[in-house]
Specification:
With about 425 residues, this protein is mainly alpha-helical. It has a domain of about 280 residues. It is built from 15 helices and four strands. Strands 1-4 form a two-stranded parallel ribbon. Helix 6 crosses helix 12.
Protein backbone atom coordinates (compact mmCIF):
# COMPACT_ATOMS: atom_id res chain seq x y z
CA UNK A 1 0.00 0.00 0.00
CA UNK A 2 1.29 3.48 -0.84
CA UNK A 3 1.80 6.17 1.75
CA UNK A 4 1.01 9.85 2.05
CA UNK A 5 4.02 11.80 3.25
CA UNK A 6 3.18 14.88 5.26
CA UNK A 7 4.89 18.19 4.52
CA UNK A 8 6.71 20.24 7.18
CA UNK A 9 3.97 22.87 7.12
CA UNK A 10 0.23 22.45 7.50
CA UNK A 11 -0.51 21.98 3.84
CA UNK A 12 1.53 20.77 0.87
CA UNK A 13 1.17 23.75 -1.45
CA UNK A 14 4.83 24.07 -2.31
CA UNK A 15 6.83 21.43 -4.18
CA UNK A 16 8.53 18.94 -1.89
CA UNK A 17 11.59 20.62 -0.45
CA UNK A 18 12.59 18.28 2.37
CA UNK A 19 12.05 14.75 1.08
CA UNK A 20 13.43 13.02 4.14
CA UNK A 21 12.31 15.54 6.75
CA UNK A 22 15.27 14.34 8.78
CA UNK A 23 15.85 15.82 12.20
CA UNK A 24 18.59 18.38 11.79
CA UNK A 25 20.38 19.85 14.82
CA UNK A 26 18.38 22.47 16.75
CA UNK A 27 18.77 26.01 15.41
CA UNK A 28 19.95 27.42 18.71
CA UNK A 29 20.33 31.04 17.60
CA UNK A 30 16.77 31.07 16.29
CA UNK A 31 15.48 29.43 19.45
CA UNK A 32 17.21 32.08 21.55
CA UNK A 33 15.78 34.84 19.37
CA UNK A 34 12.28 33.41 19.61
CA UNK A 35 12.52 33.17 23.38
CA UNK A 36 13.71 36.79 23.60
CA UNK A 37 10.75 37.99 21.51
CA UNK A 38 8.36 35.95 23.62
CA UNK A 39 9.85 37.25 26.89
CA UNK A 40 9.75 40.87 25.71
CA UNK A 41 6.12 40.59 24.64
CA UNK A 42 5.19 38.76 27.83
CA UNK A 43 6.78 41.44 30.01
CA UNK A 44 5.14 44.22 27.99
CA UNK A 45 1.72 42.61 28.37
CA UNK A 46 2.31 42.03 32.06
CA UNK A 47 3.13 45.70 32.52
CA UNK A 48 0.41 47.23 30.35
CA UNK A 49 -2.52 44.82 30.13
CA UNK A 50 -4.79 42.70 32.29
CA UNK A 51 -3.25 39.46 33.58
CA UNK A 52 -5.39 37.53 31.09
CA UNK A 53 -3.27 38.74 28.16
CA UNK A 54 0.16 37.36 29.19
CA UNK A 55 -1.51 34.10 30.25
CA UNK A 56 -3.14 33.82 26.82
CA UNK A 57 0.22 34.47 25.17
CA UNK A 58 1.50 31.32 26.89
CA UNK A 59 -1.58 29.37 25.75
CA UNK A 60 -1.06 30.61 22.19
CA UNK A 61 2.57 29.52 22.28
CA UNK A 62 1.53 26.03 23.39
CA UNK A 63 -1.10 25.91 20.64
CA UNK A 64 1.44 26.85 17.97
CA UNK A 65 4.01 24.43 19.33
CA UNK A 66 1.46 21.61 19.24
CA UNK A 67 0.16 22.43 15.77
CA UNK A 68 3.64 22.44 14.25
CA UNK A 69 4.99 19.38 16.01
CA UNK A 70 2.05 17.23 14.91
CA UNK A 71 1.63 19.02 11.54
CA UNK A 72 -1.99 19.10 12.68
CA UNK A 73 -3.93 20.31 9.67
CA UNK A 74 -7.54 21.03 8.81
CA UNK A 75 -7.10 21.87 5.13
CA UNK A 76 -4.94 18.82 4.47
CA UNK A 77 -7.31 16.59 6.43
CA UNK A 78 -10.26 17.61 4.23
CA UNK A 79 -8.16 17.30 1.06
CA UNK A 80 -6.85 13.84 1.88
CA UNK A 81 -10.34 12.65 2.66
CA UNK A 82 -11.85 14.04 -0.52
CA UNK A 83 -9.02 13.16 -2.90
CA UNK A 84 -7.73 9.74 -1.88
CA UNK A 85 -10.06 8.69 0.94
CA UNK A 86 -7.47 8.85 3.71
CA UNK A 87 -9.32 9.67 6.94
CA UNK A 88 -6.55 9.44 9.55
CA UNK A 89 -6.49 13.18 10.14
CA UNK A 90 -10.30 13.37 10.14
CA UNK A 91 -10.39 10.74 12.87
CA UNK A 92 -7.92 12.86 14.83
CA UNK A 93 -10.41 15.72 14.44
CA UNK A 94 -13.11 13.52 15.96
CA UNK A 95 -10.87 12.71 18.94
CA UNK A 96 -10.15 16.40 19.39
CA UNK A 97 -13.85 17.27 19.26
CA UNK A 98 -14.80 14.42 21.61
CA UNK A 99 -12.34 15.61 24.24
CA UNK A 100 -13.43 19.22 23.67
CA UNK A 101 -17.17 18.60 24.20
CA UNK A 102 -16.37 16.51 27.28
CA UNK A 103 -14.50 19.48 28.77
CA UNK A 104 -16.77 22.24 27.42
CA UNK A 105 -19.98 20.67 28.76
CA UNK A 106 -19.30 21.25 32.48
CA UNK A 107 -17.54 24.57 31.82
CA UNK A 108 -20.56 25.95 29.94
CA UNK A 109 -23.15 24.29 32.17
CA UNK A 110 -21.70 25.66 35.42
CA UNK A 111 -19.97 28.79 34.13
CA UNK A 112 -16.54 27.65 35.28
CA UNK A 113 -13.95 30.41 34.94
CA UNK A 114 -10.42 30.99 36.20
CA UNK A 115 -10.95 34.73 36.68
CA UNK A 116 -14.62 34.79 37.61
CA UNK A 117 -15.97 36.33 34.40
CA UNK A 118 -18.89 35.10 32.28
CA UNK A 119 -18.36 32.05 30.06
CA UNK A 120 -20.07 31.43 26.72
CA UNK A 121 -19.47 29.23 23.70
CA UNK A 122 -19.62 30.05 20.01
CA UNK A 123 -23.26 29.55 18.97
CA UNK A 124 -24.16 31.36 15.74
CA UNK A 125 -27.09 31.51 13.29
CA UNK A 126 -27.56 29.07 10.43
CA UNK A 127 -28.39 30.89 7.23
CA UNK A 128 -27.22 32.05 3.82
CA UNK A 129 -24.27 33.88 5.36
CA UNK A 130 -22.97 30.70 6.97
CA UNK A 131 -23.54 28.53 3.90
CA UNK A 132 -21.81 30.91 1.50
CA UNK A 133 -19.02 31.84 3.89
CA UNK A 134 -18.04 28.30 4.84
CA UNK A 135 -18.16 27.12 1.23
CA UNK A 136 -15.85 29.85 -0.07
CA UNK A 137 -13.60 29.39 2.96
CA UNK A 138 -13.28 25.73 1.94
CA UNK A 139 -12.18 26.78 -1.53
CA UNK A 140 -9.85 29.42 -0.16
CA UNK A 141 -8.01 27.20 2.28
CA UNK A 142 -7.23 24.70 -0.48
CA UNK A 143 -5.86 27.44 -2.72
CA UNK A 144 -4.19 29.47 0.01
CA UNK A 145 -2.32 26.44 1.30
CA UNK A 146 -3.65 26.47 4.84
CA UNK A 147 -6.60 27.30 7.05
CA UNK A 148 -6.50 30.06 9.65
CA UNK A 149 -4.43 28.10 12.17
CA UNK A 150 -2.37 26.57 9.36
CA UNK A 151 -1.52 30.02 8.00
CA UNK A 152 -0.23 31.17 11.37
CA UNK A 153 1.86 28.14 12.17
CA UNK A 154 3.21 27.84 8.61
CA UNK A 155 4.45 31.41 8.95
CA UNK A 156 6.12 30.42 12.20
CA UNK A 157 7.75 27.54 10.33
CA UNK A 158 9.18 29.84 7.64
CA UNK A 159 6.85 29.09 4.72
CA UNK A 160 7.29 32.30 2.75
CA UNK A 161 4.19 32.16 0.58
CA UNK A 162 1.99 32.05 3.66
CA UNK A 163 2.88 35.68 4.37
CA UNK A 164 1.05 36.43 1.13
CA UNK A 165 -1.88 34.30 2.25
CA UNK A 166 -2.01 36.12 5.59
CA UNK A 167 -1.90 39.58 3.98
CA UNK A 168 -4.85 38.83 1.71
CA UNK A 169 -6.59 36.91 4.48
CA UNK A 170 -6.58 40.18 6.45
CA UNK A 171 -7.81 42.15 3.44
CA UNK A 172 -10.60 39.66 2.78
CA UNK A 173 -11.66 39.62 6.42
CA UNK A 174 -11.78 43.41 6.51
CA UNK A 175 -13.96 43.55 3.39
CA UNK A 176 -16.13 40.85 4.91
CA UNK A 177 -16.55 42.92 8.08
CA UNK A 178 -17.70 45.86 5.96
CA UNK A 179 -20.24 43.70 4.10
CA UNK A 180 -21.37 41.60 7.08
CA UNK A 181 -24.53 43.63 7.93
CA UNK A 182 -25.90 42.85 4.46
CA UNK A 183 -25.35 39.12 4.88
CA UNK A 184 -26.71 38.94 8.41
CA UNK A 185 -29.59 41.42 8.12
CA UNK A 186 -30.74 41.07 4.51
CA UNK A 187 -30.21 37.36 3.95
CA UNK A 188 -32.48 34.73 5.59
CA UNK A 189 -31.24 32.80 8.60
CA UNK A 190 -32.46 30.72 11.53
CA UNK A 191 -31.75 31.77 15.08
CA UNK A 192 -28.66 30.21 16.69
CA UNK A 193 -29.30 26.56 17.57
CA UNK A 194 -27.52 24.87 20.46
CA UNK A 195 -27.83 21.12 20.87
CA UNK A 196 -27.68 21.73 24.61
CA UNK A 197 -29.99 24.70 25.21
CA UNK A 198 -32.25 24.84 22.15
CA UNK A 199 -33.37 21.20 22.04
CA UNK A 200 -34.11 20.32 25.65
CA UNK A 201 -31.30 17.79 25.72
CA UNK A 202 -29.24 19.73 28.22
CA UNK A 203 -25.46 19.53 28.21
CA UNK A 204 -25.47 15.86 29.20
CA UNK A 205 -27.76 14.86 26.35
CA UNK A 206 -25.97 17.09 23.87
CA UNK A 207 -22.66 15.53 24.91
CA UNK A 208 -24.02 12.02 24.28
CA UNK A 209 -25.38 13.00 20.86
CA UNK A 210 -22.08 14.66 19.96
CA UNK A 211 -20.01 11.64 20.95
CA UNK A 212 -22.28 9.39 18.89
CA UNK A 213 -21.90 11.67 15.86
CA UNK A 214 -18.11 11.74 16.18
CA UNK A 215 -18.03 7.96 16.39
CA UNK A 216 -20.25 7.67 13.34
CA UNK A 217 -18.07 10.04 11.32
CA UNK A 218 -14.91 8.17 12.33
CA UNK A 219 -16.54 4.87 11.34
CA UNK A 220 -17.55 6.31 7.95
CA UNK A 221 -13.95 7.40 7.27
CA UNK A 222 -12.76 3.85 7.94
CA UNK A 223 -15.35 2.46 5.51
CA UNK A 224 -14.29 4.97 2.84
CA UNK A 225 -10.62 4.08 3.34
CA UNK A 226 -11.31 0.41 2.87
CA UNK A 227 -13.48 1.01 -0.18
CA UNK A 228 -10.96 3.29 -1.87
CA UNK A 229 -7.93 1.34 -0.60
CA UNK A 230 -6.59 4.68 0.55
CA UNK A 231 -2.84 5.19 1.02
CA UNK A 232 -1.54 5.61 4.54
CA UNK A 233 0.28 8.63 5.92
CA UNK A 234 3.97 8.00 6.36
CA UNK A 235 5.30 8.66 9.87
CA UNK A 236 7.57 11.66 10.28
CA UNK A 237 11.05 11.39 11.85
CA UNK A 238 11.06 12.04 15.57
CA UNK A 239 13.04 11.73 18.76
CA UNK A 240 12.33 9.12 21.41
CA UNK A 241 11.45 9.35 25.08
CA UNK A 242 11.13 12.76 26.72
CA UNK A 243 13.06 14.44 23.88
CA UNK A 244 10.04 13.89 21.65
CA UNK A 245 8.25 16.64 23.53
CA UNK A 246 10.67 19.18 22.07
CA UNK A 247 11.86 17.66 18.78
CA UNK A 248 10.32 15.61 16.03
CA UNK A 249 6.75 14.71 15.20
CA UNK A 250 3.94 14.12 17.66
CA UNK A 251 1.17 11.58 17.04
CA UNK A 252 -1.94 13.24 15.60
CA UNK A 253 -4.14 11.82 18.34
CA UNK A 254 -1.88 13.16 21.09
CA UNK A 255 -1.96 16.60 19.51
CA UNK A 256 -5.75 16.35 19.18
CA UNK A 257 -6.07 15.86 22.94
CA UNK A 258 -3.65 18.70 23.73
CA UNK A 259 -5.47 21.12 21.40
CA UNK A 260 -8.83 20.24 22.99
CA UNK A 261 -7.48 20.78 26.49
CA UNK A 262 -5.87 24.11 25.53
CA UNK A 263 -9.13 25.27 23.93
CA UNK A 264 -11.01 24.44 27.13
CA UNK A 265 -8.40 26.32 29.16
CA UNK A 266 -8.81 29.29 26.80
CA UNK A 267 -12.56 29.20 27.40
CA UNK A 268 -12.04 29.32 31.16
CA UNK A 269 -9.44 32.10 30.95
CA UNK A 270 -11.08 34.61 28.62
CA UNK A 271 -14.69 33.43 28.69
CA UNK A 272 -14.88 32.35 25.02
CA UNK A 273 -13.18 29.54 23.04
CA UNK A 274 -10.11 29.85 20.87
CA UNK A 275 -10.57 32.03 17.80
CA UNK A 276 -8.32 33.54 15.15
CA UNK A 277 -9.94 35.61 12.42
CA UNK A 278 -11.67 38.34 14.43
CA UNK A 279 -8.16 39.67 15.07
CA UNK A 280 -7.55 39.85 11.31
CA UNK A 281 -10.64 42.03 10.93
CA UNK A 282 -9.34 44.26 13.71
CA UNK A 283 -5.87 44.56 12.19
CA UNK A 284 -7.24 45.31 8.74
CA UNK A 285 -9.75 47.84 10.03
CA UNK A 286 -7.12 49.70 12.04
CA UNK A 287 -4.88 49.87 8.98
CA UNK A 288 -7.81 51.13 6.90
CA UNK A 289 -8.42 53.81 9.52
CA UNK A 290 -4.89 55.13 9.09
CA UNK A 291 -5.71 55.70 5.42
CA UNK A 292 -8.77 57.74 6.28
CA UNK A 293 -11.46 55.09 5.98
CA UNK A 294 -14.37 55.73 8.36
CA UNK A 295 -14.26 52.23 9.80
CA UNK A 296 -16.07 53.23 12.99
CA UNK A 297 -19.26 53.81 10.97
CA UNK A 298 -19.39 50.20 9.76
CA UNK A 299 -22.14 48.08 11.24
CA UNK A 300 -19.56 45.46 12.25
CA UNK A 301 -17.88 47.93 14.61
CA UNK A 302 -21.02 49.04 16.38
CA UNK A 303 -22.12 47.86 19.81
CA UNK A 304 -19.80 45.50 21.69
CA UNK A 305 -17.13 45.58 18.97
CA UNK A 306 -16.68 49.36 19.15
CA UNK A 307 -14.41 49.22 22.19
CA UNK A 308 -12.03 46.79 20.44
CA UNK A 309 -11.57 49.19 17.54
CA UNK A 310 -10.68 52.07 19.86
CA UNK A 311 -8.28 50.08 22.05
CA UNK A 312 -4.75 48.93 21.27
CA UNK A 313 -4.41 45.57 19.54
CA UNK A 314 -2.53 44.32 22.60
CA UNK A 315 -5.80 44.52 24.53
CA UNK A 316 -7.38 42.09 22.06
CA UNK A 317 -7.17 38.55 23.40
CA UNK A 318 -7.44 36.94 19.95
CA UNK A 319 -4.52 39.00 18.70
CA UNK A 320 -2.41 37.81 21.62
CA UNK A 321 -3.34 34.18 20.95
CA UNK A 322 -2.34 34.63 17.30
CA UNK A 323 1.03 36.10 18.26
CA UNK A 324 1.56 33.17 20.59
CA UNK A 325 0.74 30.63 17.88
CA UNK A 326 3.29 32.14 15.52
CA UNK A 327 6.01 32.25 18.17
CA UNK A 328 5.22 28.71 19.33
CA UNK A 329 5.41 27.34 15.79
CA UNK A 330 8.67 29.22 15.22
CA UNK A 331 10.22 27.70 18.34
CA UNK A 332 8.98 24.23 17.37
CA UNK A 333 10.42 24.48 13.87
CA UNK A 334 13.75 25.80 15.13
CA UNK A 335 13.93 23.06 17.78
CA UNK A 336 13.53 20.48 15.02
CA UNK A 337 16.08 22.22 12.79
CA UNK A 338 13.36 22.83 10.21
CA UNK A 339 13.02 26.61 9.99
CA UNK A 340 13.82 27.72 6.49
CA UNK A 341 12.22 30.24 4.18
CA UNK A 342 10.71 28.51 1.16
CA UNK A 343 10.55 29.70 -2.43
CA UNK A 344 7.51 31.36 -3.96
CA UNK A 345 6.37 30.49 -7.49
CA UNK A 346 3.98 32.58 -9.63
CA UNK A 347 1.39 29.83 -9.31
CA UNK A 348 1.35 29.52 -5.55
CA UNK A 349 1.61 33.31 -5.22
CA UNK A 350 -1.61 33.83 -7.17
CA UNK A 351 -3.27 30.92 -5.37
CA UNK A 352 -2.34 32.49 -2.05
CA UNK A 353 -3.79 35.85 -3.07
CA UNK A 354 -7.10 34.35 -4.14
CA UNK A 355 -7.17 31.82 -1.32
CA UNK A 356 -6.42 34.43 1.30
CA UNK A 357 -9.19 36.72 0.04
CA UNK A 358 -11.72 33.88 -0.04
CA UNK A 359 -10.80 32.65 3.44
CA UNK A 360 -10.94 36.12 4.92
CA UNK A 361 -14.27 37.03 3.39
CA UNK A 362 -15.71 33.59 4.09
CA UNK A 363 -14.61 33.60 7.72
CA UNK A 364 -16.51 36.80 8.44
CA UNK A 365 -19.67 35.58 6.72
CA UNK A 366 -19.50 32.18 8.44
CA UNK A 367 -18.91 33.58 11.96
CA UNK A 368 -15.41 32.15 12.08
CA UNK A 369 -12.88 29.83 10.51
CA UNK A 370 -11.85 26.23 11.05
CA UNK A 371 -11.01 27.16 14.65
CA UNK A 372 -13.75 29.56 15.72
CA UNK A 373 -16.64 28.06 13.74
CA UNK A 374 -15.72 24.39 13.18
CA UNK A 375 -13.68 23.53 16.28
CA UNK A 376 -15.14 26.12 18.65
CA UNK A 377 -18.67 25.88 17.30
CA UNK A 378 -18.94 22.10 17.54
CA UNK A 379 -17.24 22.09 20.94
CA UNK A 380 -19.88 24.63 22.05
CA UNK A 381 -22.66 22.30 20.83
CA UNK A 382 -23.68 24.73 18.08
CA UNK A 383 -25.37 23.39 14.95
CA UNK A 384 -23.57 25.99 12.88
CA UNK A 385 -20.24 24.25 13.54
CA UNK A 386 -21.45 21.06 11.86
CA UNK A 387 -22.90 23.00 8.92
CA UNK A 388 -19.63 24.87 8.58
CA UNK A 389 -17.74 21.58 8.29
CA UNK A 390 -20.10 20.20 5.65
CA UNK A 391 -19.94 23.34 3.51
CA UNK A 392 -16.14 23.62 3.85
CA UNK A 393 -15.80 20.03 2.64
CA UNK A 394 -18.01 20.99 -0.32
CA UNK A 395 -15.67 23.88 -1.08
CA UNK A 396 -12.72 21.51 -0.80
CA UNK A 397 -14.24 19.21 -3.42
CA UNK A 398 -14.56 22.09 -5.90
CA UNK A 399 -11.06 23.32 -5.10
CA UNK A 400 -9.58 19.96 -6.09
CA UNK A 401 -10.44 20.91 -9.68
CA UNK A 402 -9.05 24.44 -9.27
CA UNK A 403 -5.68 23.63 -7.70
CA UNK A 404 -4.06 22.32 -10.93
CA UNK A 405 -4.78 25.69 -12.58
CA UNK A 406 -2.17 27.17 -10.25
CA UNK A 407 0.27 24.31 -10.49
CA UNK A 408 -0.78 22.88 -7.13
CA UNK A 409 -0.85 19.14 -6.66
CA UNK A 410 -3.96 17.03 -6.15
CA UNK A 411 -3.16 13.68 -4.53
CA UNK A 412 -4.03 10.53 -6.42
CA UNK A 413 -4.34 7.06 -4.92
CA UNK A 414 -0.88 6.21 -6.28
CA UNK A 415 0.84 9.33 -4.96
CA UNK A 416 3.35 9.27 -2.13
CA UNK A 417 3.00 12.96 -1.27
CA UNK A 418 -0.10 14.80 -0.08
Amino acid sequence: MTTIRVQPADEAQDPVERDSLRLDPPQKILIAGGLVVFAALFIYLLATQDIVQPVLLIIGLLLGYTLFHARFGFTSAFRRMMSVGNGQAMRAHMVMLAVAVTLFAPILAFGLSFFGGPVSGYVSPVGVSLLVGAFIFGIGMQLGGGCASGTLYAIGGGRTVMFVTLLFFIIGTTIGAYHLPFWTEEMPAFEPISLATSTGLGYGGAWAVSIALFGLIAWVTVIIEKKKKAPKMAPLPTEHGWKRIFRGSWPLFAAAIVLAVLNAVTLMIRGTPWGITSAFALWGSKIAETFGVDVASWGYWQGANAASLQATIFADSTTILNFGVIIGAFLASAAGGLFKFSKVTPGNFMASVIGGLLMGYGARLAFGCNIGAYFGGIASFSLHGYIWGIMAIGGTFLALYLRPLFGLSVPKSSDSVC
